[in-house]
Write a structure and sequence with these properties.
This protein has six helices and 13 strands. The chain is of the alpha/beta class. The chain is globular.
Length: 256
């Protein structure tokens, strides 16, 4: 398994304005360095809106997915983010992992954020999703999921291999709870002996909530490998397979 190059795109999302967000991401990714995986914020082209009836798309007719597939193909990368999806009469805050080939693996956010009324509008997902990409096993998560360690618990399969190597959270997590964000991301790395990636937005949304970003990558010992604060930025980080294997070999906690 090779090292994994990840690009964090901490953006100032434009409130409920899909075209403006597409244009902004195009600008931010214009001079993209060689990478394997791009991570964008939660509800990447609307911001964290509860206006699902107006902004929902379907998997078969989605501006958001079309943009993600085109970008993944042109830049030859995978992309992970979320968007509002409607199926029948239900709405989901749906994570989408888009491969360069255009294949899409989905994850429905399992913990809806009651303080914002997300649980009144969106249906909660019921299943975990772990994707395999370039030899890495990646668990997909979304924002509020971070507060519930039981749904990201790592372990060993029948071959004594860990369930996953990286857990990725895409988020719209307000600045006033940044300590929780940073602490919980670190905890997920330590307790699961994995890399954790938390990609947050920055700026102010249409409801006046302020976001400081604080996008970070933590290694399996909980050390912060990368951190972005208070500004739009595109930052690259490399996840080391050698380090991951060494930590798991020296500290074989997952078997216990």
């Amino acid at each position: 398994m090779q090292d994994l190059k990840v690009t964090l795109v901490q953006a100032d999302q434009k409130w409920e304005n899909k075209q403006a967000n597409f244009s902004n991401y195009d600008r931010l990714l214009e001079n993209l360095e060689e990478t394997d995986l791009i991570v964008l914020p939660e509800m990447f082209h609307t911001s964290f809106s509860m206006n699902a009836t107006e902004f929902a798309e379907t998997m078969n007719d989605s501006e958001g997915l079309n943009w993600l597939k085109l970008t993944a193909r042109v830049k030859n990368v995978a992309i992970y983010t979320s968007l509002i999806i409607q199926e029948s009469n239900h709405y989901y805050n749906r994570g989408v992992f888009v491969y360069p080939s255009g294949e899409v693996i989905t994850y429905n956010k399992r913990k809806c954020f009651g303080l914002a009324g997300e649980d009144k509008i969106f249906n909660a997902g019921k299943n975990k999703t772990i994707v395999e990409y370039k030899g890495w096993k990646i668990q997909l998560q979304i924002c509020y999921d971070l507060r519930f360690p039981e749904i990201s618990r790592n372990g060993l399969d029948s071959n004594l291999s860990p369930f996953y190597d990286v857990v990725v959270y895409v988020a719209n997590w307000p600045e006033k709870r940044k300590l929780h964000w940073q602490t919980l991301l670190t905890a997920r790395s330590i307790e699961n002996q994995c890399y954790s990636i938390g990609l947050n937005r920055v700026g102010e949304d249409g409801k006046g909530l302020v976001y400081s970003g604080d996008s970070q990558v933590s290694d399996p010992l909980g050390n912060t490998q990368s951190l972005i604060t208070k500004k739009e930025e595109v930052k690259n980080v490399c996840l080391s397979k050698e380090l991951l294997d060494k930590i798991r070999q020296d500290l074989p906690f997952l078997k216990d």
